[in-house]
Amino acid sequence: MAGNDKRHGARRKEGTKKGPTVGSGGQRRRALQGKGPTPPAEERKAHPAARRAASAAKRAASGGSSQGAGSSRPSGSRPPARRGGPKGEGTELVAGRNSVVEALRARVPATTLYVAERIESDDRVKEALKLAGDLHIPVLEGPRPELDRMTDGTLHQGLVLQVPPYRYATPQDLLERAHDSGRPPLLVALDGVTDPRNLGAAVRSAAAFGAHGVIVPERRSVGMTAGAWKASAGAAARLPVARVTNLTRALRELQNGGVFVAGLDGEGSVEVGELEVASDPLVLVVGSEGKGLSRLVRDTCDLVVRIPIAHDTESLNAGIAASIALYEVARRRAA
């Protein structure tokens, strides 16, 4: 429009025209070239994975502890995601405040203590954190859903202790333990017990009444899983558990060593309170609640005893039966 060329800003100054005037000089071609593959997350400085990797390397360099011995505050790291709970022979998880504190008191060789975020602290939580610090066990803090997933929904009360696979003893180890104690051997053998709570209860009762160990078979029987640890209330850290390939063969070897084998069965010929050999080297064999003693194990026993119960009660579970029998044996030994 006429006259607009004299208005300020109406004309473009030379050298300010947008875009290339003649050519780009190859700048556009170079701009299309990539910078190579995306580096892993651990190599990106601002990525959370890189910070976690740096923290892990720092802990490894300082001896594997993420918390000093005198500190009672858990670190801010979160436990790794886990799809499922403990499996058989793998790493075990001890869940629950009492069980965790008992295991730490017994100096179980734990690898990590997991603590729920915003946990309501009480004396047990404070003691668990202090013991973990004294034992140089790493303490990791994480959200409760993470701990729920780790323990498959088990009631953990905000504390989960990760321990290595259980190291089983041998029957000979149990006999040596009895010899060192100066008392006649008292062992408990479980035949076909598949419930970890019954195994834990039997271990707890055996420790309470002075037994020297528990024997379980490898097949058709539960091992020392996290559930058994929890049911034992930490007694499994003090009392050894032996695992044998064949329970019948193991009982015969004990018999050859001078140990009396007594089985518990509702159709036994003698009441457990009248067991005359209670003060001698003894193995109490407890069967499962439903099937009781297997045929081969029953035939191997030197004597089958019974626990007197009401006629309208079918049977007792293995944990309770072991407790009653052990009490009677301990009573006769103390008399």
TrEMBL record:
Residues 51-79 have a biased composition (Low complexity). It comes from the Bacteria. Residues 93-169 form the RNA 2-O ribose methyltransferase substrate binding domain. GO terms for cellular component: cytosol. One of its GO terms (biological process) is methylation. Keywords: Methyltransferase, Transferase. One of its GO terms (molecular function) is RNA methyltransferase activity. InterPro entries: Alpha/beta_knot_MTases, Ribosomal_eL30-like_sf, rRNA_MeTrfase_TrmH, SpoU_MeTrfase, SpoU_subst-bd, tRNA_m1G_MTases_N. The keyword Transport does not apply. It holds the Pfam family SpoU_methylase. Residues 1-17 have a biased composition (Basic and acidic residues). Residues 1-95 are annotated as: Disordered. PANTHER family: 23S RRNA (GUANOSINE-2'-O-)-METHYLTRANSFERASE RLMB (PTHR46429). Belongs to the class IV-like SAM-binding methyltransferase superfamily. RNA methyltransferase TrmH family. This is 23S rRNA (Guanosine2251-2'-O)-methyltransferase. It comes from Motilibacter rhizosphaerae.
